[in-house]
Amino acid sequence: MIEVEHLTKRYGPRTAVQDVSFRVGKGEIVGFLGPNGAGKSTTLRMLTGFLAPSGGAIRIDGIDALAKPIEAKKRIGYMPEACPIYPEMRVREYLRYRAELKGVASRAIKERIEIALDQASVKEAGDRIIGQLSKGTRQRVGLADALVADPPILVLDEPTAGLDPNQIRQVRDLVRGLAGKKTVLVSTHILPEVESTCDRVVIIHRGRVVREGAPDQLRQAIAGGNVLVIEARATHDQLRGALEGVEGVGAIESVEALGDGRVRARVAVEELGEGAERVFAAFARTGLVLRELRPETVGSLEEVFGRLTTEEAAQPEPPASTDESSDEEAAS
Ligand SMILES: Nc1ncnc2c1ncn2[C@@H]1O[C@H](COP(=O)(O)OP(=O)(O)OP(=O)(O)O)[C@@H](O)[C@H]1O
User: Fold this and answer.
1) Which residues form the ABC transporter domain (predicted)?
2) Same domain, yes or no, for 291 and 181?
3) Is the Cβ atom of 37 under 6 angstroms away from ligand 1?
4) CA 273 to CA 245: how far, in whole Å?
5) What's the 329 CA to ligand 1 centre distance in angstroms?
6) Is the predicted pLDDT of residue 206 greater than 60, yes or no?
7) Whether 188 contacts 160, CB under 8 Å
8) From ligand 1's centre to the CA of 39, what distance in Å?
9) pLDDT tier at 311 (50, 70, 90 boundaries)?
10) 241 and 99 share one domain
């Protein structure tokens, strides 16, 4: 449904998005994850037709979005980061205005507004003045706006930014509830958000895609193979001696002295289960006390992200520009 190929955006000499390619299949919920300034909003604005790319291609539901931007836009409900909502309008009045703008047939507008209010869990605020709503409720009005024309694709830019934990949960539930019904691309810099709502994650850092996969796959990929964590009452040399020549046991990747005659080591093994059995037997043979033996796991995607961005941070910064203006803003 969404195909992005070699997308690039330069702001003067600064390249904000560089050679970004990814796809979002029909009915998929994909998280677009990256730290602040990674290029998420710039990418989303390009693929929703609000910003002209410097290079690359975008296809929305098979339509070339650069050649036929109006056709492509009709298929997308876009919720920008700072949702432009008119504070003096009432919610239903605003959604009517938006539905008309989006070309919803006039006989269908009333029903579409009620459905969108319901989907965004904001029905109770339908007759209230937007300027008097809490930030969370306003955010949900933005979501109702994205849904009002019943587009097959939703592009949501940080929909939970600035919300309290309760409101965040509501928005997450809502996005999850769209699974299978809509194709969703949702940007965030918050990892638990993608873990709990997304089928797949595209991680962007400094304008480039650094990883892509299911949240679980990403965690495994970064765990870096089969590693056992061993804690024993032993010296470094005793540990090395116990593991020497044990079948299926590879390099000792690190050893840490814990004091009190204990060490903790990370050891590469060919296979986790068998490796653990063999390490256990080897320690039993030597009579050394084994205190802990477990596969190394990466706790959360938070850690994955930390590792990825640290790897990337080792690379030099792209040249900065003082020109903050966009070179080719597209008409909305
Ligand atoms: N109009 C602009 N002119 C110049 N540089 C810009 C402009 N808009 C964004 N940038 C720069 O492009 C880079 C990517 O910004 P972008 O807003 O896309 O990041 P983001 O991942 O959405 O981050 P955030 O969550 O902070 O919005 C940043 O370095 C930003 O400073």
Assistant:
1) 2-231
2) no
3) yes
4) 18
5) 14
6) yes
7) yes
8) 6
9) low
10) no
Kindly indicate whether the ipTM for this predicted assembly is greater than 0.85, answering yes or no: yes
Q: How far apart are CA 189 and CA 53, in angstroms?
A: 23
Distance from the CA of 210 to the center of ligand 1, in angstroms?
17
Q: Whose CA is nearest to atom 1 of ligand 1?
A: 326
Burial class (CB in 10 A: 0-12, 13-18, 19+), 101: exposed
- Domain harbouring 186, CATH code: 3.40.50.300
Q: How far apart are CA 4 and CA 57, in angstroms?
A: 6
**Residues 133-171 pLDDT 10s:** 988 888 889 999 999 999 999 999 998 887 788 888 888
Whether 3 shows a pLDDT value over 90: the answer reads yes
The mean of the pLDDT values for the chain is: 86
| pLDDT classification of 64: cutoffs 50, 70, 90 | very high
Query: Is residue 259 exposed (0-12), middle (13-18) or buried (19+ Cβ within 10 Å)?
Result: exposed
Same-domain check for residues 153 and 40: yes
- And the tokens for 210? 């650094």
Q: Using alpha carbons, select from 39, 48, 49 the residue that is nearest to residue 8.
A: 39
Are 57 and 183 within one domain? yes
- Counting beta carbons within 10 angstroms of the beta carbon of residue 184, is it exposed (0 to 12), middle (13 to 18) or buried (19 or more)? buried
**Does residue 332 lie within any of the structural domains?**
no
pLDDT of residue 272: 85
Q: Do residue 192 and residue 95 come from a single domain?
A: yes
Are residue 214 and residue 260 in the same domain, yes or no? no
Per the domain annotation, does 304 fall within a domain? no
Q: How many domains does the chain have?
A: 2
- Predicted local confidence at residue 326, as pLDDT: 42
Beta strand 153-157 pairing with 183-188: parallel
* The amino acid at 162: G
* Ligand 1 atom closest to 41 (CA): 22
* Ligand 1 atom nearest to 38, measured from its CA: 21
> What are the angstrom distances between the C-alpha of 148 and each of 48, 73, 79, 224?
16, 14, 12, 45
Domain that holds residue 271: 225-298
